[in-house]
Specification:
heterodimer, A: about 600 residues, alpha+beta, Elongation Factor Tu (Ef-tu), domain 3, Rossmann fold, 26 strands, about 25% strand, B: alpha/beta, Bovine Mitochondrial F1-ATPase, ATP Synthase Beta Chain, Chain D, domain3, 7-stranded antiparallel β-sheet, 19 strands
C-alpha cells in the first residue's frame, strides 16, 4: 500500500508526493476524511489526483493512501430503483445517515448488505460453468429478474451450490473449482467503471427502440444498441425529451444519468418515476430504473464517474440479455469538468480550452453502446442504447462538444431554439436531424407494423423539405400567389407538423404514442395529401379542401388512445375518401352548372 | 469599519509576513505548514486595517490568497497574514431581519452588531438530490405575463434577463410587493442582495420594501459598484446563507433577489484573469457554469422541511444578446427565464415580457386543477400559439401587405395587438388574481373563431368561453360578469 503526502491543492486537483508505486486510475484516499480520489497522471514520484469530493480543508502534508484498485462499480441485487451519486453511494441512505445535504468523506456500501434476496439456483454440483453463465436468478423487482452470472474471467466446475432460499449478497451462492483454485461466486460482482465488459460478438442494431415519440419513431428511428445525441440550447427541451425516452422507451432497464444538471429536475424525475407506470406492464417505472445524480453543484470531477458508472451498470444488465437504455444529461457538463481539470493541469488546450483528448474520451463512452451476443450460457442477446444530451453554448452546434459527439453517434436529434420558441415540442428540427438506422430498422417496421412504413416516412420528409423551400417564397411574396398544388403542400406539411410531429410530453395520452398509432396517424395524413393532389388536379381549390371536417378528426387523433386509433382509423380513412368524393361531385356539379 | 464576526478564538492562528507577490487581487505568500485549502485569512495592513481573504491554491512553497477588498496598500514589509484555520462563515440570527449588511455580512445600517445564533459556511452544502422535494406550489405574483404564461413556483430559480435601461428593478419590486401563495398564512421573508449595483438601485429597492411594509421581513446585502470587486464573489453566497438559515432552521419561505448577476460574472472573469487561467468563451472562466450553479442550486425544497428558497436573479444581457455567456450559462442552470424585450418597452408596454423567449420549466407542476384552475394549462398553450401565429402574420403582413391576408389571418393580427396591450400590459401597482388573468385570457381568445381553439378541450371551452359563460351567468343570475 502506497502512502504519500499532499504537495499541492488546487480545486478538485491534488498533487501528492511519495506516491511511487500507484497506478494511473488507482483509487486513493486523501486526507483525514479519506476523500475519494483517482490518480489521473504520474510525474516521477508525484501523483496527480482528481478528488471526487470538496477539497476545502485539506492541507499540504496530509496523508494520501493508495487502495491498489481502480474505481469499481458494485453490481448485484439491490441496484434497481436506487439513486446513486457519481461514486455509487446510495443517496437516499446518505439522507438518512447525514441529513439532506451532501457531506464529504461519507462511506456507504452501494448495495445493501443486510437485505436477503430469494435466490433460485439454475446449476447443480458437477456442472461445468464458464464466464458469464447464469447460475441462478433473483426476482429483484416485479419487472426485473436479476440473473446471477459467473463473473468474467472465472470458469470451472461447480463444487457447491446453495439450495433455493434467502441469502444476503455477501453469502457465496456457489463455489466454482478449477484445478486447485476455488472461487466463491456471490450475488454481486465488482467491475472497473472505465473498462468495457466483455462480450462474444457485436451485432448490427436492426431493431428499433420504440420511444413513443412520433418524430423519432417515424422519421429518425433509434435502434436498440444505437447511439444518439440530443444537442439543444437552453429551453429547447433536452431534458424533457431524454426523460420521455427514459420513461416510455421499450427497454427493460432504464438508467438515467443526471450529470451536472439541475437538482429540481432530478427530484422531479425521481418523483415521476415513482408515480408513472410502465405502458406495457402497468407497474411503477421505478421498478426497472436506476438513477445516477450528480447535480451541477456537486463535485465537478464526479461528473465523469457518473457517466462511466452508468454505462458499466448498463453493460452488466446487457450481459443478462436485456435491452438497456442509458440517457445522459448532459455530456457537455462532463466535458466542462474535463476542461476544468485539464486547465488546472496546465495541459495544452485544444479548441475553446477543451483538452485535445475530448473526442477520444467521448468516444470511449459512446462506443460502449451496442447490441451484442452476451458472454456465457444460455445464449442471449442484449443491448445498450445511449442517448446523450449536449448543451452547446449559445445553441451553436459548431462548438467542440457537439462536433466531437457527432463524429461518434449515429442519430442526431437536433433541438431547435426557433421551434421551441414557437412551442413546437419536441423541438426536433427535421431538416438537420438524421438517423443512420432508417435502413436497418425498415424491415422491422415493414413486418410488424405496416409494409409502407418507409414510403410514408420518405413522403413525409419530402413534404417537409418542400415546405421549407416554399416558405422562402412565401416570405417574399405571400402565400396567396402560390400554385394550388404548392398550397396543398403547405397545408399538409402544416398538418404533419401540428397534428403529427408536435407531441405533448405531459398529456396523459399523447405522451406515449405506440408504433401502430404513430403509423396510422401519418398514414391518414399522407392519404389526405394523395387525395388532395387528385382533387387539386381536377380543379378544386385548396381553400375548399382545407374546410373538410376530416381534418379536425385527424387533429384529434393524438389525444386518442392507441387501441382507439387502431380500431377507428379504417373508418376515418373511409370517411376521408367519402368527403373527397363529395367535394369532387360538388365541384363537378358546380362546373356543369 | 467594524470587524466581521467570526467564531471567537480559532484553535490556532498561523501567521506569516513572508509575502512573495501580488497579482490582481491575489496575494502570494510563502506556505506556512498546516495551511488548509479554502481557509480564511486575515491580511493586516501596515495601517492596522484588516482585510479578509481566502486560500485558493496551496502548494509546498506558495499559498495563493484571494483578498476580499483587494490588495491596494499591501506592502511587503509591514503586512502580515494570519490563517484562521476555517472557511468563511457568516454569523446568522433572526435579528438579521430588517437589517442592512455589506457584501461580507457586516452591518452597515448603523445598528448594533448581530448576536449570532449560528455560524454557517457561506458556501453552503449541496442539497442531496434524493432529499429534494419537487417544487409545485404556485406563487401568485399578480402579473399576468408571469402568472398566466410563466408561472413561478416555490423553490424555483427563475431569473429576469434584462438589458440596460429596461424596467427589471420595477418588475422585481412589484413581485416582492405582490407575491403570495394562495389561501395560506405562512412565514415568509425576502433576502435581497445588491451585487455591484449603483447606490441608487439599491436605495430604490430599500424604499420599495419600506413602502410595502416588509422591510422588517427583509435582509439586505449591499455591495455597491464602488466596493471592492472581489467582495462580489462573497455577496450572493452570504445572502443565500442567510436565506438558508431562515428557510431550513426557521421554516420560512424565502424569496431571494440577486441583482445584478452580470456584475458577479464580471468579477469572476477579473479574478480568473488575475490567476492566469485558461479562459473559456469571451474570457469568462471555463468553470463559470459550475460556479453559478453553486449559487443558483441553493434554491429548492427539502422533504420534511417546511421552508423553501426561491431565487430570482436579475441580470442585464450585454448588448441584449441572449447567447452571451452570462445569460446562456444562467439559462442552462435556472428553471426558465423571464426575458424582457426592448421592442415591447418601446411600444410602452409594462412589463415588457418577451413571451417567446420566456419560459418557466416548473410551471406544469404548479398549475391546473387544484393549483390554479383546470383550464390554465390549455389556455396558456392556446394563448401562446395564437400570439405566435399573430406575430408570424405580422411579419408576413409587413412584407406583403394586409390585403394579401385572409379574414382569419386578420383576426390573429388583431389578437396579437390586443394581447400585448391588454394582457401583457398592466399597471405597476395593479394586482391581478390568477382568475382575473385567466378570464382576461378567455376574453381575448373569444376574438378568434371557436374552431381555432384546437388546443383546449371542448368541455373546458363550454365551461369558460365567454359565449357560454355569459349565457350561463345570465341564466343563473350570477353577479360577476366579466367587463
Amino acid at each position: 500500500m502506497v502512502v504519500g503526502r499532499i504537495y499541492r491543492i488546487s480545486g478538485p486537483l491534488v498533487i501528492a508526493e511519495g506516491m511511487r508505486g500507484v497506478q494511473v486510475y488507482e483509487v486513493v484516499e486523501v486526507g483525514e476524511d479519506r476523500l475519494i480520489g483517482e490518480v489521473i497522471g504520474l510525474d516521477g514520484d508525484r501523483a496527480i489526483i482528481q478528488v471526487y469530493e470538496d477539497t476545502s480543508g485539506l492541507s499540504v502534508g496530509d496523508k494520501v493512501v493508495g487502495t491498489g484498485r481502480p474505481l469499481c462499480a458494485e453490481l448485484g441485487p439491490g441496484i434497481i430503483g436506487t439513486v446513486y451519486d457519481g461514486l455509487q453511494r446510495p443517496l437516499s441512505v446518505l439522507t438518512e445517515k447525514v441529513g439532506p445535504f451532501v457531506r464529504r468523506g461519507v462511506k456507504e456500501y452501494s448495495l445493501p448488505r443486510d437485505k436477503k434476496w430469494h435466490f433460485k439456483p439454475l446449476v447443480k454440483v458437477g456442472d461445468k460453468v464458464g464466464e458469464g453463465d447464469i447460475i441462478g436468478i433473483v426476482q429483484e423487482t416485479p419487472l426485473v429478474e436479476h440473473k446471477i452470472m459467473v463473473p468474467p474471467g472465472i470458469y470451472g466446475v461447480v463444487k457447491e451450490v446453495v439450495p433455493e432460499g434467502d441469502y444476503t449478497i455477501e453469502e457465496p451462492v456457489a463455489i466454482v473449482e478449477r484445478g486447485s483454485e476455488k472461487y466463491e461466486v456471490k450475488m454481486y460482482q465488482l467491475w472497473p467503471i472505465r473498462k468495457p465488459r466483455p462480450y462474444v460478438q457485436r451485432l448490427d442494431p436492426d431493431e428499433p427502440l420504440i420511444t413513443g415519440v412520433r418524430v423519432i419513431d417515424m422519421l429518425f428511428p433509434l435502434a436498440k444498441g444505437g447511439t444518439a445525441a440530443v444537442p439543444g440550447g437552453f429551453g429547447t427541451g433536452k431534458t424533457v425529451l431524454l426523460q420521455t425516452f427514459a420513461k416510455w422507451a421499450d427497454a427493460q432497464i432504464h438508467i438515467y444519468v443526471g450529470c451536472g444538471e439541475r437538482g429540481n429536475e432530478m427530484a422531479d424525475a425521481l418523483h415521476s418515476f415513482l408515480r408513472l407506470r410502465d405502458p406495457r406492464s402497468g407497474r411503477p417505472l421505478r421498478e426497472k430504473a436506476i438513477f445516477i445524480a450528480n447535480t451541477s453543484n456537486m463535485p465537478v470531477a464526479a461528473r465523469e464517474t457518473s457517466v462511466f458508472l452508468g454505462v458499466t451498470i448498463a453493460e452488466y444488465f446487457r450481459d443478462m440479455g436485456y435491452n438497456v437504455l442509458l440517457v445522459a444529461d448532459s455530456t457537455s457538463r462532463w466535458a466542462e469538468a474535463m476542461r476544468e481539470i485539464s486547465g488546472r493541469l496546465e495541459e495544452m488546450p485544444g479548441e475553446e480550452g477543451f483538452p485535445a483528448y475530448l473526442g477520444s474520451r467521448l468516444a470511449s463512452f459512446y462506443e460502449r453502446a451496442g447490441k451484442v451476443v452476451c458472454l456465457g450460457n444460455p445464449r442471449r442477446i442484449g443491448s445498450v442504447t445511449i442517448a446523450g444530451a449536449v448543451s452547446p453554448p449559445g445553441a451553436d452546434f459548431s462548438e467542440p462538444v457537439t462536433q466531437n459527439t457527432l463524429r461518434i453517434v449515429r442519430c442526431l436529434f437536433a433541438l431547435d431554439v426557433a421551434l421551441a420558441n414557437r412551442r413546437h415540442f419536441p423541438a426536433i428540427n427535421w431538416l438537420i436531424s438524421y438517423s443512420l438506422y432508417v435502413d436497418t430498422v425498415e424491415r422491422w417496421w415493414g413486418e410488424r407494423v405496416g409494409k409502407d412504413w418507409r414510403y410514408l416516412r420518405d413522403k413525409a420528409m419530402e413534404l417537409l423539405q418542400r415546405e421549407a423551400e416554399l416558405q422562402e417564397i412565401v416570405r417574399l411574396v405571400g402565400p396567396e400567389v402560390l400554385p394550388e398544388r404548392d398550397k396543398l403542400v403547405l397545408e399538409v406539411a402544416r398538418m404533419i407538423r401540428e397534428d403529427f410531429l408536435m407531441q405533448d410530453a405531459f398529456d396523459p395520452v399523447d405522451c406515449y404514442s405506440a408504433p401502430e398509432k404513430t403509423y396510422s396517424m401519418l398514414r391518414i395524413i399522407i392519404k389526405f395529401y394523395e387525395h388532395g393532389v387528385k382533387a387539386v388536379d381536377s380543379g378544386i381549390p385548396v381553400a375548399e379542401i382545407r374546410k373538410l371536417p376530416i381534418r379536425t378528426t385527424i387533429a384529434r387523433l393524438k389525444f386518442m388512445r392507441n387501441e382507439e386509433v387502431v380500431e377507428k382509423v379504417k373508418e376515418y380513412e373511409k370517411e376521408l375518401e367519402r368527403e373527397f368524393m363529395e367535394l369532387g361531385s360538388k365541384f363537378g356539379a358546380g362546373g356543369v352548372g | 469599519m467594524s470587524t466581521m464576526e467570526v467564531p471567537k478564538v480559532p484553535l490556532c492562528y498561523r501567521e506569516t509576513s513572508s509575502l512573495r507577490a501580488t497579482k490582481g487581487s491575489l496575494l502570494l505568500v510563502e506556505t506556512v505548514p498546516g495551511v488548509k485549502y479554502g481557509e480564511i485569512v486575515e491580511v493586516e495592513l501596515g495601517s492596522g486595517e484588516v482585510r479578509y481573504g481566502q486560500v485558493i491554491d496551496v502548494s509546498k512553497d506558495v499559498t495563493v490568497i484571494q483578498v476580499f477588498g483587494g490588495v491596494s496598500e499591501v506592502d511587503m514589509v509591514k503586512c502580515r497574514v494570519r490563517f484562521r484555520g476555517e472557511t468563511l462563515k457568516l454569523p446568522v440570527s433572526l435579528d438579521m431581519l430588517g437589517r442592512i449588511f455589506d457584501g461580507l455580512g457586516r452591518p452597515i445600517d448603523g445598528g448594533p452588531p448581530i448576536v449570532p445564533e449560528e455560524y454557517l459556511d457561506i458556501n453552503g452544502a449541496p442539497i442531496n438530490p434524493a432529499a429534494r422535494m419537487p417544487p409545485s406550489e404556485f406563487i401568485e405574483t399578480g402579473i399576468s405575463a408571469i402568472d398566466g404564461l410563466n408561472s413561478l413556483v416555490r423553490g424555483q430559480k427563475l431569473p429576469i434577463f434584462s438589458g440596460s435601461g429596461l424596467p427589471h428593478n420595477r418588475i422585481a419590486a412589484q413581485i416582492v410587493r405582490q407575491a403570495t401563495v394562495r389561501g395560506k398564512e405562512e412565514k415568509f421573508a425576502v433576502v435581497f442582495a445588491a451585487i455591484g449595483v449603483t447606490y441608487d438601485d439599491a436605495a430604490f429597492f430599500i424604499r420599495n420594501f419600506k413602502e410595502a411594509g416588509i422591510l422588517d421581513r427583509t435582509i439586505v446585502f449591499i455591495n455597491t459598484a464602488a466596493d471592492p470587486v472581489i467582495q462580489r464573489i462573497a455577496t450572493p453566497r452570504a445572502a443565500l446563507t442567510a436565506a438558508e438559515y431562515l428557510a431550513w432552521y426557521h421554516d420560512m419561505h424565502v424569496l431571494v433577489i440577486l441583482t445584478d448577476m452580470t456584475n458577479y460574472c464580471e468579477a469572476l472573469r477579473e479574478i480568473s484573469a488575475a490567476r492566469e487561467e485558461v479562459p473559456g468563451r469571451r474570457g469568462y472562466p471555463g468553470y463559470m457554469y459550475t460556479d453559478l450553479a453553486t449559487i443558483y442550486e441553493r434554491a429548492g425544497r427539502i422533504w420534511g422541511k417546511k421552508g423553501s428558497i426561491t431565487i430570482m436573479p436579475i441580470l442585464t444581457m450585454p448588448d441584449d444578446d441572449i447567447t452571451h455567456p452570462i445569460p446562456d450559462l444562467t439559462g442552462y442552470i435556472t428553471e426558465g427565464q423571464i426575458v424582457l424585450s426592448r421592442d415591447l418597452q418601446r411600444k410602452g408596454i409594462y412589463p415588457p415580457v418577451d413571451v417567446f423567449l420566456s419560459l418557466s420549466r416548473l410551471m406544469k407542476e404548479g398549475i391546473g386543477e387544484g393549483k390554479t384552475r383546470e383550464d390554465h394549462p390549455y389556455v396558456f398553450r392556446q394563448l401562446y400559439a395564437a400570439y405566435a401565429e399573430g406575430c408570424h402574420l405580422r411579419e408576413i403582413a409587413s412584407i406583403v401587405g394586409m390585403e394579401a391576408l385572409s379574414p382569419r389571418d386578420k383576426k390573429y393580427l388583431e389578437f396579437a395587438d390586443v394581447f400585448e396591450r391588454k394582457f401583457i400590459n398592466q399597471g405597476e401597482y395593479e394586482r391581478r388574481s390568477i382568475e382575473d388573468t385567466l378570464d382576461l385570457a378567455w376574453d381575448l381568445l373569444a376574438m378568434l373563431p371557436e374552431e381555432e381553439l384546437k388546443l383546449i378541450r371542448p368541455e373546458l371551452i363550454e365551461r369558460y368561453h365567454p359565449k357560454y359563460r355569459r349565457g350561463r351567468e345570465a341564466g343563473s343570475h350570477t353577479s360577476s360578469t366579466q367587463g
